[in-house]
Design goal:
about 110 residues, mainly alpha, 2 domains, 2 helices
């Protein structure tokens, strides 16, 4: 069996390693932030603007296409529902015809 003190020391070692790695990551991120300029250059700004415009155009295209897609889906569901209602109607008519035939002793 393992000694409780050994297990406890292993847990604290793992936790301390995690904390050390986390501190190193924070320090590295802080150094990267300090290296960054305070302002964007004109070229960088234009690139961001183009990306944003492309994304907005994509979203606008999807939004503009939405009513036709919804209309198509509604029509499809309506036709499916209409077909299933027709099947139920024919099934009920056949059942009623069979019941009427039994009642009036036609067969």
């Amino acid at each position: 069996m393992s000694n409780p003190e050994t297990v406890e020391s292993n847990v604290t070692d793992i936790e301390s390693e995690r904390l050390i790695r986390r501190d190193m990551q924070i320090q590295q991120t802080y150094k990267e932030v300090l290296k960054m300029p305070d302002f964007l250059s004109k070229g960088e700004f234009d690139q961001f603007e183009k990306r944003i415009d492309q994304r907005l155009d994509t979203i606008e295209g999807k939004v503009d296409d939405l009513p036709t897609r919804l209309d198509d889906k509604i029509k499809l569901h309506f036709e499916t529902m209409k077909n299933s209602q027709m099947k139920w109607f024919i099934g009920v008519l056949i059942a009623l015809a069979g019941l009427a035939g039994r009642i009036f002793e036609l067969y």
